[in-house]
Amino acid sequence: MEDCVDFDFSALYQQYWERIFKQIIRILPDEDEVADVVQQTFVDLWEIRQKLPEIQNLSSFIFVMARNNAFKRLKRLMRSEAYMLSYSAPATQADLVLEEWLQYKELHQLLHLEIDRLPTKMKEMFVLSRYEGLSYTEIAGKLGKSDKTVKKQVSNAIKILKLRLNLKYSLPFLVFLLF
């Protein structure tokens, strides 16, 4: 290369800035960030301009410098709160799933506590119907009651549980657990 004093930095900028921009846009999606990286690359080159004549492959050197600046910028951006918030939707979705699961577990525990508070025969009929999957006829035969009595007791149990649990939880959860 020529002596640094004669080095045409403006021509170097004109020759490389657009190509660097196109390379860096693949790393950083924001054009303003890319423009900052391109600018920083040329500032860095200016600061080491005395060493430029010693560089064997200036083109490769410039592109590697730009790439490294882009990765530094990306690393800094990823640490910033605003950047993290823009990419936090998947985490938020996971948080919602976890929250729903915890609500389900809490409701399930509460449901069992409320079932235990039901009158003994009503509780027995409800459990046989909803947890053991027996029909009203099967429950009636097992307990020596009429189908109509079993149906009425199970229906009353559901009403009581809805009233007790609906104060805190939404209907879809209750429907899922009770039916």
What is this structure's SSE topology?
Elements: H1 9-24, H2 31-47, H3 58-79, H4 81-86, H5 89-116, H6 120-130, H7 136-143, H8 147-165, H9 171-178
Helix pairs in contact: 1-2, 1-3, 2-3, 5-8, 6-8, 7-8
Q: Supply the CATH superfamily name of the largest domain.
A: Winged helix-like DNA-binding domain superfamily/Winged helix DNA-binding domain
- Specify the biggest β-sheet: none
State the CATH class of the largest domain: Mainly Alpha
> What is the typical, i.e. mean, pLDDT?
80
Architecture (CATH level 2) name of the largest domain = Orthogonal Bundle
Uncertain regions spanning at least 5 consecutive residues: 1-5
Question: What is the rounded Rg?
Answer: 36 Å
What share of the residues does DSSP label as strand, in percent? under 5%
| H and E order | HHHHHHHHH
Per DSSP E runs of 2 or more residues, the count of β-strands stands at 0
Task: Give an overview in words.
This protein has 179 residues and is mostly helical. It folds into 2 domains: 4-86, Orthogonal Bundle (Rna Polymerase Sigma Factor, Chain: A); 89-178, Winged helix-like DNA-binding domain superfamily/Winged helix DNA-binding domain (Arc Repressor Mutant, subunit A), CATH 1.10.10.10. The protein has helices at residues 9-24, 31-47, 58-79, 81-86, 89-116, 120-130, 136-143, 147-165, 171-178. The termini are far apart.
Any key phrases for this structure?
9 helices, mainly alpha, 179 residues, Arc Repressor Mutant, subunit A, single chain, disordered N terminus
Question: In summary, what is this structure?
Answer:
By secondary structure, the chain is an all-alpha fold.
